[in-house]
Design brief:
The protein contains four helices and two strands; from the N terminus they run ααββαα. It is mainly alpha-helical. A hairpin with a 2-residue loop joins strand 1 and strand 2. It starts with a helix and ends with a helix.
């Protein structure tokens, strides 16, 4: 009976030790998650703060003849389809999306011929990609077979 009591005490002490260990791990995990939450809260910022805009200085022509030569060059293109507003082809505005005013939108019931052709080309392009993906054919193998 004495052995039975000692083995129960050992089991109890072992269980107590494991319980303390697990409790310590839980406290550590809770503290770590709180530190992580505080860190992410501190670094969370407005995405526009990370926006970096770079540019180069504009070349200003004092001479009127040089300005006319530059304006007559083929580097100028209409901006957003407006022939009266010409910009340099390297101007960043050429990369901006065109935002159409709601009052200026025209609704056409008949799609143009080019729109129909574009839609058919897109369908064929995506159909081929989906078919190749379904079959498990890689792009390289498909291109090699096509040529």
């Amino acid at each position: 009976q004495h052995y039975f009591i000692q083995s129960n005490l050992r089991m109890w002490h072992e269980a107590r030790r494991q319980e303390k260990k697990i409790r310590g791990m839980m406290v550590d995990y809770r503290k770590r998650s709180e530190r992580r939450r505080m860190y992410y809260h501190q670094i969370k910022a407005d995405p526009t703060q990370f926006l970096r805009v770079q540019g180069i200085p504009c070349q200003i022509y004092i001479e009127e003849e040089a300005a006319e030569i530059e304006a007559a060059a083929s580097d100028l293109m209409p901006w957003q389809g407006d022939k009266t507003n010409l910009i340099d082809r390297f101007d960043v505005r050429a990369n901006l999306d065109v935002i159409v005013e709601p009052g200026n939108m025209t609704i056409t019931t008949e799609p143009s011929e080019t729109a129909v052709i574009d839609q058919k080309c897109q369908y064929e392009r995506w159909r081929t990609l989906a078919t190749n993906d379904l079959v498990g054919l890689s792009v390289c193998v498909f291109v090699c077979q096509a040529t």
